[in-house]
Amino acid sequence: MPGLDDSRQFVPLKIAVLTVSDTRTPEDDKSGATLVERITAAGHTVAARAIVVDDVAAIRSRVETWIADPEIDVVITTGGTGFTGRDVTPEAVEPLFEKRMEAFSSLFLLVSFQKIGTSAIQTRATAGVARATYVFCLPGSPGACKDAWDNILVHQLDYRYRPCNFVEIMPRLDEHLRRPKSKGATA
């Protein structure tokens, strides 16, 4: 049965939150505030927070800066995952992924479908690993941020969660970059 293993110690992560919006300000960014509230309530640290406009270069630049920072473990974006002409978060972020997390998109769709029915089809939520950093791109509504955090991320970003979680494999995310080429070795 999945759940928390209290014999394991909690490992706090440093998480950056990026709101993608042409109209939001720090004062009215409800989705970003929802994520910050949940991140800190879970015992993690908000390492950075920013708002950028719906622009591929602006989004990519901010995410690239954060994934290059060894102090940031996770990046969560909110906004820009829909189908309008200005929704470009997946286009900005997915090229940075070394590995795409297909199951996150599928699981988020299942969670959303339970809450909003067939309207869940309108999301292009995505996730992946870039430079040994987890990146999750969520829709811009506070409800979608709550659903993703409460049903998926709070568990997978908790080292105590069993049978497995993202935290326990973090030290191995960049092992392919640290290991010298095998030079013909077969083992």
From TrEMBL:
Under the heading Pfam families, the entry gives: MoCF_biosynth
Q: Does the keyword Nucleus apply?
A: no
What SUPFAM superfamilies would the database entry show?
Molybdenum cofactor biosynthesis proteins
- Keyword Lyase among record annotations: no
Its annotated pathway reads: Cofactor biosynthesis; molybdopterin biosynthesis
- State the source organism's domain of life: Bacteria
Segments forming domain MoaB/Mog:
16-160
Keyword line: Molybdenum cofactor biosynthesis
Briefly, what is this protein's role?
A: May be involved in the biosynthesis of molybdopterin.
Identify its protein family: Belongs to the MoaB/Mog family.
Q: Please give the name of this protein.
A: Molybdenum cofactor biosynthesis protein B
Q: What is the native source organism of this protein? A: Rhodoplanes tepidamans (Rhodoplanes cryptolactis)
Its organism's taxonomic lineage begins at: Bacteria, Pseudomonadati, Pseudomonadota, Alphaproteobacteria, Hyphomicrobiales
- Gene giving rise to this polypeptide: moaB
